[in-house]
């Protein structure tokens, strides 16, 4: 039942004092005035509270259970992060500069910490999320090549076929031609294939390391040299930084531009389009093109530097999603250097534990030591049982577990990408393995049971195609 269906004429949950302000007339043009009153539900306070509380209980979240979404790093978010963010909720971006000293110092110190973690020289905190960061990084690359007089010839961006879907989209939005290269049989970049496309017409190579298959690009130093030898830049998609944080740094691998997902790696709740934060770190020669303002140290304090003549300009209003920055800052200070390294150690350990356990029942696409995630290949399983990856994902809901990422990356048919993160216990991982093994047995003995799932959710299996093509955005009486 929607909140509108709970509405009863005359019912309300508020009482306002008598209107005692003199009517000075209306300066709003007639054609902009509402002709009819807004369609708002008439409900009591208890109706509202119960309605939205019940809706929240029907939703699944990382606070309620295991959320093994591959490539998303859906780790548990410590509540101290929220407490610290609350300290800044009364700030307003239009406040005078002298009244936000603490916020500026926080951003400045956070930037230094992130530069140290990534091995970059300077950074902007403005981008609102990962894809926004990608676009920002590519606009910086574009400005750099324009400044040195090479933009006319450098029209191409190379991305591997295992890249995140936003990589080619961001490159296209920045005005580049996208060149996709095939992965080698080991799931990593095929150096011979890369050589075929790498010349002085290439502006950027976009990589994730470890890649989307959860595999570390062992030839990354060679790839970096190949890129730099032809004058191209190397871009790091930071979606998978959780696997290497504290162990190695993208800047040390040869990456020139590095984007981060603070809402993934650094423990800020995310999903459904926000909130997020996608800072971009760069090597020194690219720093002049960063968005303004950049937080930089001046003496013992940090200041907002707007004096960047070659800047690409602002990419986000004010200073970015500031409260997300506060949460990431809290997380980093709470963990410390040793703690961040331990995060990566446990993320990799948990992923390999699941990989080995599930390999007894399912086919692992690249069955060797992985990093933070791995991919199951269900193509043969689907042919034998008629049960597809989507069916397994739906059936997991009946076991009280959120499904992993499915059908991605596209180079693995019937893919199921699993990332347990570091915050899950062995007990939770074993529960997931047991559920997967039971579903595999069900698929062999009673495939229709799995194909009809889920059975225990508030809403049964949806028509995903119709929901995508014919979405309903508002309630109609």
Strand content: 5-15%
CATH superfamily of the largest domain: Type I PLP-dependent aspartate aminotransferase-like (Major domain)
Global shape = globular
Low-confidence stretches: none
**If classified by CATH, what would the architecture of the largest domain be?**
3-Layer(aba) Sandwich
**CATH C-level label of the largest domain:** Alpha Beta
What do the pLDDT scores average to? 94
Radius of gyration (CA) equals: 25 Å
Task: Tell me the number of helical segments per DSSP (H or I, 4 or more residues long).
Answer: 14
- The helix/strand order is HHHEHEHEHEHEHEEEEHEHHEEHHH
Distance between the first and last residues' Cα? 13 Å
Strand order of the largest sheet: 1-7-6-5-4-2-3
Helix content: 25-40%
CATH topology-level name of the largest domain: Aspartate Aminotransferase, domain 2
Number of strands: 12
- Helix/strand-derived category reads alpha/beta
Describe the model.
- The glycine cleavage system is composed of four proteins: P, T, L and H. In this organism, the P 'protein' is a heterodimer of two subunits.
- With about 475 residues, this protein is of the alpha/beta class.
- It has helices at about 45-60, 80-85, 100-120, 130-145, 165-175, 190-195, 220-230, 250-255, 320-360, 380-385, 390-400, 425-445, 445-450, 465-470, and strands at about 120-125, 155-160, 175-180, 200-205, 235, 255-260, 280, 295-300, 300-305, 375, 405, 415-420.
- The strands form three sheets. The protein has a seven-stranded mixed β-sheet, with helices on both faces.
- Helix 2 runs antiparallel to helix 9 (about 320-360), helix 4 packs across helix 5 and helix 9 (about 320-360) packs across helix 12.
